[in-house]
Amino acid sequence: MDQRQTAIVDNPDPSQSLGQISHLALDIGGSLIKVVYFSRNRDSSVDHKGESSSNDNPGVFNGNRKHTVLKGKLHFAKFETSKINDCLEFISSKKHHLGGFQHHENPAKDKKFIKATGGGAYKFAELFKEKLGIGLDKEDEMDCLVAGANFLLKAVPREVYTYVDGHKEFLQIDHNDLYPYLLVNIGSGVSMIKVDGDGKFERVSGTNVGGGTFWGLGRLLTRCKSFDELLELSHRGNNRVIDMLVGDIYGGTDYSKIGLSSTTIASSFGKAISDNKEIDDYKPEDVARSLLRMISNNIGQISYLNALRFGLKRIFFGGFFIQGHPYTMDTISVAVHFWSKGEAKAMFLRHEGFLGVLGAFMSYAKHSLDDSVVNQSMQSLVNGSYASDTNYNPQNGDWSDNESIPCSLYTA
Ligand SMILES: Nc1ncnc2c1ncn2[C@@H]1O[C@H](COP(=O)(O)OP(=O)(O)OP(=O)(O)O)[C@@H](O)[C@H]1O
Ligand SMILES: CC(C)(CO)[C@@H](O)C(=O)NCCC(=O)O
Q1: Sign of CA dihedral 305, 310, 315, 316
Q2: Is 189 in the pocket of ligand 1 (CB under 6 A)?
Q3: 229 vs 62 pLDDT, higher one
Q4: What mean pLDDT is reported for the chain?
Q5: Dist. CA 151 → ligand 2 center (Å)
Q6: Which residues line ligand 2 (CB under 6 A)?
Q7: How close is the Cα of 205 to the center of ligand 2, in Å?
């Protein structure tokens, strides 16, 4: 049986039949709302275990405490923040399933709370209360990003890959040699975080030229209607039509003395100075390509400079700007390789856009009354169940678009 039902869906069908949903978390960003929720398997029996270890889930249990094991799946969904009503409708369709979480500091019996991170957890708190009668239990965005990244890096096999010459190469992360690393989260804006351990980190830099800039400028310049359309355009475009290359300045030759080949971009959009053309004279696909290249290159360069500042060799890139898009990853990888002279490495995460919301989901373990030990249990169960997943192709590490993670929650 296929273990992965609906998962990364833009407009999830609210009538989708699922087992009981017990936990749901949100990351409400400037561009997108990310949702993670746990649904119990319909046929899952509830086990009660109290050993310090078990064959099923080694290393999960502590001492002689009894835990209830809820078997099920983690589902992922996203909505555009500008269409928050779709998200409210989606949650409303699940609301009667939600188990009535109580705020750890305010356990008012009649209120439901869900974990939420991102700026929208503040901005839209009243809206959730008003429309759904649900309170948002706010978790810090940076804490959540780091918790989500550490979880994926340590617990999920074949999560991390490099992108070199058009190929994904999956990497095995050594848990004992993970820190320090630089986490670059490319959302609407970009955060750069030096991570030294679990919960040990510092946001060392950021840039306002990020995914929102690409989508916003791209929409204005190409008049395309969706982010996916803009990416598709960029796929077909040729940036050399608009970008000024070193060769354009140097009469077709390299400037080898300072290490610049004739094909290096000297100035993004620089040809538009002298072409005597208007925006409509350029093909939208060429504009989209130049824009994607400019922004990816810039982020790659700033990331490298921050890695250099702190002597970090590994840079993990997350955020929905990447979207597993080959040209984006190639540009970032080439920029990091070029500027670091091969010393630093750009790495990507399969669940790139869900770091923050996974961190928020895991924070149930920290606070909730039922004392879920989500973290460890996801860790061992995710490990155990991926091996038997029929849709997973270990040759190239690809997943189909629709993906959920089989997992268990342990509640005391
Ligand atoms: N379907 C989509 N609609 C809009 N933007 C998309 C879509 N898919 C990918 N993106 C890109 O992803 C970016 C948002 O990424 P992400 O969800 O990680 O950030 P965010 O949480 O919204 O932003 P921030 O953290 O800065 O508040 C967008 O700015 C855009 O570049
Ligand atoms: C403001 C946040 C943290 C919101 O997610 C993000 O959009 C960001 O990191 N922007 C870049 C801000 C800056 O450091 O210039």
Answers
A1: negative
A2: yes
A3: 229
A4: 82
A5: 22
A6: 29-30, 119, 141, 187-191, 206-208
A7: 9
Sheet with 345-349, strands from edge to edge, namely 167-171, 160-164, 345-349, 314-318, 181-186, 190-197, 200-207
Q: SS in 3 state form for 87-101?
A: HHHHHHHHHCCCCCC
Residue 50 has pLDDT above 80, yes or no: no
* Nearest-angstrom CA–CA distance, 329 and 165: 10
pLDDT, tens only, 109-130? 456 899 999 999 999 999 999 9
Residue 21: pLDDT above 80? no
Q: What is the ipTM of this complex?
A: 0.99
Q: Is the CB of 31 under 6 A from ligand 1?
A: yes
Domains of the chain as residue ranges with CATH: 20-42+65-158+354-382+404-411 (3.30.420.510), 211-242+282-349 (3.30.420.40)
Q: With contact defined as beta carbons under 8 Å apart, do 13 and 345 qualify?
A: no
The pLDDT score that the predictor gives to residue 17 is 47
Which of 320, 325, 355 to mutate to test ligand 1, by most ligand atoms within 8 A of the CB atom? 320
Tell me, yes or no, if the pTM score tops 0.95. Answer: no
Three-class SS state of 83: helix
Render pLDDT for 22-38 as a digit per residue (tens, 0 to 9). 789 999 999 999 999 98
Query: Nearest residue CA, atom 10 of ligand 2?
Result: 189
Q: Nearest residue CA, atom 8 of ligand 2?
A: 189
**Mean of pLDDT values over 251-262:** 97
Cβ neighbours around 143 below 10 Å, total: 17
Q: Which residue has the tokens 């810039």?
A: 298
Q: Is 321 in the pocket of ligand 1 (CB under 6 A)?
A: yes
32 Cβ inside 6 Å of ligand 1 = yes
**Cα 178 to ligand 2 centre (Å):** 25
Q: How far does residue 118's CA lie from ligand 1's centre (Å)?
A: 12
For residue 182, the CA-to-ligand 2 centroid distance in Å is: 16
Q: How far is CA 332 from CA 231, 242, 243, 314, 346, in A?
A: 15, 20, 17, 13, 7
Confidence band of 97 (pLDDT split at 50, 70, 90): low
